[in-house]
Design goal:
- The complex is a heterodimer of chains A (207) and B (260).
- Chain A is built from 5 helices and 13 strands.
- Chain A has 207 residues and is α/β, with parallel strands linked by helices.
- Helix content of chain A is 23%, strand content 32%.
- A 9-stranded mixed beta sheet of chain A has the order 2-1-3-4-13-12-11-8-9.
- In chain B, 35% of the residues lie in helices and 27% in strands.
- Chain B has 260 residues and is α/β, with parallel strands linked by helices.
- Classes of the chains: A alpha/beta (207), B alpha/beta (260).
- At the A-B interface, helix 1, strand 8, strand 9 and helix 5 of A face helix 3, helix 4 and helix 6 of B.
Chain lengths: 207, 260
């Protein structure tokens, strides 16, 4: 199982690589879009601001490659944190910015969607499932995962929301559109539950 | 519900872990890697690793060592010590740090905080403030591992840092550091009231009740501690049980068929 971790210049690549290696994957850190054609699974990690992240992705031509590999070839993609947010249609961090458009929705600051708690939302929070999804196989409902973010994904269709967490208001914790998955929390930093989720992503086979 | 985090702080000096009292009289704790492995296997909420000599000696962050440490760390890792530039933050994040803690450089170059938050997101930028209480009851900021009085009010500085884009404040009482006499509740409470970002209380934890107090009375979002874990029988898991009994939400460790 070859997992390509996209290196677009922002993100905690070492943790993601290590977590997938722990789960038995052969990890390929993809420094160039051509590298992901060779992989079975694609991971888009990311720490940072939406506009900066999209600028880095666009400058290096990642958008086109991701559309080809994920939409046309149907390879599973997992976006983590900023990587999940960039799956959206539009982001609002650092100015209104067009996202990858793989899952319809907007990315807004937590206080813009009604959250009155301290922002950023940092720490371990329990994740509640809205449906039985392959991503959470074997992980008990309401397990804690590690979050660290100021912006939140607001999906256009509730059908794409698979899990939420509560931080004054309901916050999208995990989303999915077919073979495109995203989680707002950091599975690579969520200890055992996170590692199990990464293995579920590797085990997922699209029909 | 968001959980209150319990965070062991690891102070690193010349290849080993140390712990002092009042930022002085350093005692050797042992090599870093085995300690990180133990905390990781015990599934702590988060770890903070600070190179205490970096700013004093003008050293740059040691990316190679951070890389070795993060390899063993399946929970969030905040790295501090000697960070002065965006390029250094990039290499620390690449080495596996999840957040960086900036202290001394923020005083001479406050725009570093804005630049770092703009580039990496506020959630990645922890501003570390070392505060000492003066006789008149005010708190002042100290840089370079508490050796230099920077002449700023700690509460005002915390607010400025939050306004400039810091994602969290790591607030250490120099007076209480290593004493195990309890957190400086007034310091923590004043900073918590002044900012709308999470505040990690540090300095002075000596028993479980101290940690419960700083959360319940002062409003800390997380408790950091070092001596209590290095030199006593108390553990992060024990803190969490005590907190839970006191009605504070804490993370339950994963139960089930853990991978591997």
């Amino acid at each position: 199982m070859k997992v390509a971790v996209i290196n677009f210049g922002m993100g905690n690549l070492a943790s993601v690589r290590r977590a997938f290696e722990d789960m038995g994957a052969e990890v390929l850190v993809a420094n160039h879009p051509a590298a992901i054609y060779d992989a079975n699974r694609i991971v888009l990690p990311g720490v940072g601001a939406f506009s900066e992240g999209m600028a880095c992705l666009n400058d290096a031509g990642w958008g086109t490659a991701l559309h080809e590999v994920v939409i046309n070839q149907g390879k599973p993609l997992l976006g983590i944190c900023l990587g999940m947010q960039m799956l959206a249609t539009t982001g609002h961090e650092g100015g209104e910015t067009k996202g990858l458009g793989l899952i319809p929705g907007d990315v807004k600051r937590l206080d813009a969607v009604g959250c009155k708690f301290r922002v950023p939302h940092v720490g371990w929070n329990d994740v509640k499932y809205l449906k039985n999804d392959t991503l959470f196989n074997g992980i008990p409902d309401a397990s804690d995962f590690y979050f660290v973010h100021s912006y939140t994904f607001v999906p256009e269709s509730p059908a794409h929301l698979i899990a939420t967490t509560s931080y004054d208001c309901n916050v999208a914790a995990a989303i999915r559109n077919g073979n495109v998955f995203g989680c707002q929390f950091h599975p690579e930093k969520s200890s055992k539950a996170g590692r199990l989720l990464l293995r579920n992503f590797m085990d997922y086979v699209s029909c | 519900m968001l959980k209150i985090r319990v965070i062991p702080t690891l102070l690193w000096k010349n290849f080993g872990l140390v712990k002092g009292v009042g930022f002085d009289s350093w005692r050797r704790v042992g090599p870093a890697l085995p300690v990180i492995k133990v905390y990781n296997s015990r599934d702590v909420d988060e770890l903070i690793l600070v190179d205490i000599m970096a700013s004093q000696e003008g050293n740059k962050p040691d990316h190679d060592s951070v890389g070795d440490f993060s390899e063993e760390c399946a929970v969030p890792l905040t790295v501090g010590g000697g960070i002065t530039s965006l390029d250094q933050i990039v290499s620390l994040l690449h080495a596996g740090a999840d957040k960086v803690a900036i202290n001394t450089a923020a005083y001479s170059n406050p725009t570093l905080i804005e630049a770092a938050a703009g580039r990496f997101g506020a959630q990645c930028v922890v501003v570390s403030i070392d505060a000492r209480r003066f006789e008149d009851g005010r708190y002042g900021c100290f840089s370079h591992s508490a050796t230099v009085n920077v002449g700023r009010d700690s509460v005002g500085w915390a607010k400025e840092m939050a306004d400039r884009g810091a994602g969290e404040i790591l607030l250490t009482s120099i007076d209480r550091d290593g004493t195990m006499l309890g957190y400086d509740l007034e310091l923590v409470e004043r900073v918590v009231r002044a900012v709308d970002i999470p505040v990690i209380a540090s300095g002075g934890a000596g028993n479980y009740q101290h940690m419960i107090d700083v959360v319940k009375q002062a409003g800390a979002s997380a408790v950091a501690a070092a001596s209590i874990f290095h030199f006593t029988e108390l553990t992060p898991a024990g803190v969490k049980l005590a907190m839970q009994a006191a009605g504070i939400p804490v993370r339950r460790n994963f139960i089930g068929n853990a991978p591997k």
